[in-house]
Design a protein that fits this description.
The protein is an alpha/beta fold. Helix content is about 30%, strand content about 20%.
Length: about 325
């Protein structure tokens, strides 16, 4: 039975005035063993996001069947208005299957997907968005640079930048921060076995703007158009590098976009162990909020296979040393 008129009938919904959407999957099934510090890590992650995001951003947390303590904490944040959207799953859906449906439905120009163990520094949104402003062909930008992924799903980036004369080796990144990331994923001795990659990074240089070629995906900001190219089926992986490849890396390449990172490190990968330095990252509530008008995506007209073949030749052991030396890598150009 219905009595009266629904007051919401024929009422137009006003669109949210936001252009940057942050999505964080949280999976903490218990608070012992591997997850014994996860409550602290989760609080630091979400707290740092809220302390550093601008007012034209939206925060979505996807709770992947976490324990009661974490669920209660997230509910409290939502009730207090610190979370714009909170999605609960009774069981773990995995990273990709938790975030991709949300990203596909998002209308914001930029969508940041981040693991739940990332500590953000002030200024990260400004730095990431500025890369999009300076390099409109960018489709994936991370606030964490490292010099090992310049040839990882970067065919469009390298081909386009080559013919525009934008490529250059420069000393722009903080070696200490890069080593800290390597340590956080237990690759302190292997990631930078070639120490030259700590000293020089392959970059795009455009007037007063710079960006690092390539990036990882434990935290990255993507254009919404990228998610139109993701598979239509679920991955069914709790976590897998192949899922990141199929649902993030390949779609960005299929879209014809560049893959970049900010020269300065703006986020830390905390891992599962809490350390004292994590509490020392401070935030000023009065920090200036910088907003940007994100330019529309620029599309490519050269077929992807042409770019891929060209880059494969350019990065071959016969051509790469000569080309890297030409780009300013005076030492170590043979083993970079």
């Amino acid at each position: 039975m219905r009595i009266g008129q629904n007051p919401e009938n024929n009422k137009k919904i006003v669109s949210e005035d936001v252009y940057h959407h942050i999505i964080v999957p949280v999976y903490v099934p218990r608070l012992d063993d591997y997850f014994k510090d996860s409550y602290k890590i989760t609080r630091l992650c979400i707290g740092s996001i809220n302390a550093t995001r601008h007012y034209k951003s939206k925060l979505t947390i996807v709770n992947n069947g976490s324990c009661d303590e974490i669920t209660s904490y997230l509910n409290g944040l939502y009730a207090s208005g610190f979370i714009d959207q909170l999605i609960h799953h009774k069981t773990n859906k995995g990273k990709i299957d938790a975030v991709i449906p949300v990203a596909k439905q998002a209308t914001e120009a930029l969508i940041t997907i981040t693991d739940g163990d990332v500590l953000f520094k002030p200024g990260w949104m400004d730095a990431v968005e500025r890369v999009y402003v300076n390099f409109p062909k960018a489709g994936m930008v991370s606030p964490v640079p490292h010099g090992t992924l310049y040839n990882h799903f970067t065919a469009h980036t390298l081909y386009d930048a080559f013919f525009r004369g934008l490529l250059k080796f420069q000393k722009l990144c903080d070696p200490e921060a890069m080593l800290l990331f390597a340590k956080s994923i237990d690759k302190e001795t292997t990631m930078y076995a070639k120490s030259i990659r700590l000293q020089y990074q392959l970059t795009l240089r455009k007037k007063n703007a710079n960006a690092i070629v390539g990036c990882g995906h434990f935290v990255a900001t993507l254009r919404k158009e990228v998610f139109k190219k993701t598979p239509k089926v679920m991955s069914h992986w709790a976590y897998s590098s192949s899922a990141d490849r199929d649902y993030i890396d390949i779609p960005n390449e299929k879209s014809g976009f560049w893959r970049l990172a900010t020269p300065e490190n703006y986020a830390y990968h905390m891992g599962n162990i809490h350390e004292e330095w994590m509490d020392e990252v401070t935030y000023k509530p009065e920090q200036k909020q910088v907003l940007h008008i994100i330019p529309k995506a620029q599309h490519n007209f050269i077929p992807y296979f042409v770019k891929k073949v060209f880059v494969r030749i350019l990065m071959s052991r016969y051509v790469k040393p000569w080309y890297f030396k030409k780009l300013g890598l005076v030492e170590g150009y043979k083993e970079y």
